[in-house]
Design a protein that fits this description.
Elements lengths: L2 H44 L6 H5 L12 H4 L10 H20 L4 H9 L6 H63 L7
Helix pairs in contact: 1-6, 4-6, 5-6
């Protein structure tokens, strides 16, 4: 095979890969933008606001703000919940703490099973059902916030992948240009 033909094939493959990486990077940016805007818009509609900074000054166990919340939640004090990272902090370090306190460390399923075993209409049943409903609603909100976090995180991964694709496109473009330059400099008679 002639060297010039081989260089031409490699340069064309390099051009194709450059185009592929540009398209993949563009799709990654689109996915990042789509995920971020959707998470932001959905969370903005909920109008959830973190407790104010003053609430973290009086943190104590059994109150709205416990000492365990300070490292993760206090950094967002007074802010509206709008990002996936905020959703994760609110779900895992605010709601989860309160659910644990309300349910005594039991899950919704465990509380529901215990409530169904009580005689219907009794004061214990009524109190247990109220706890079950509260834990169910809190668990649902926590799950929805964690879904928003997961979707946001996928957008972040798409951003990093698109940056890598654009970097590879630049590298492939350089190699492609060098391949065409080398092909032009190679004589027609050179064999591999």
């Amino acid at each position: 095979m002639k060297r010039k033909t081989f260089d031409g094939i490699l340069a064309i493959v390099g051009a194709g890969l450059t185009i592929f990486f540009i398209v993949a990077g563009s799709l990654g940016l689109w996915a990042y933008s789509f995920a971020n805007s959707n998470v932001h818009n959905q969370l903005a509609e909920q109008q959830i606001v973190f407790p104010p900074a003053s609430a973290f000054a009086n943190a104590k166990a059994g109150s709205e703000i416990t000492p365990s919340m300070i490292p993760e939640v206090s950094q967002y004090a007074g802010q509206q919940l709008l990002t996936g990272k905020q959703a994760e902090a609110y779900a895992d370090h605010f709601i989860a703490v309160h659910l644990d306190e309300i349910g005594g460390g039991k899950t919704y399923s465990q509380l529901s099973t215990a409530a169904m075993a009580l005689p219907k209409g009794s004061p214990e049943y009524t109190a247990a059902e109220a706890t079950v409903q509260t834990v169910f609603q809190g668990t649902t909100l926590r799950g929805l916030l964690l879904e928003a976090y997961a979707f946001w995180q996928m957008g972040q991964i798409a951003l990093y992948a698109s940056i890598a694709c654009f970097a590879l496109a630049v590298v492939m473009l350089i190699f492609t240009i060098l391949g065409f330059v080398h092909m032009r400099r190679t004589s027609e008679d050179t064999e591999i």
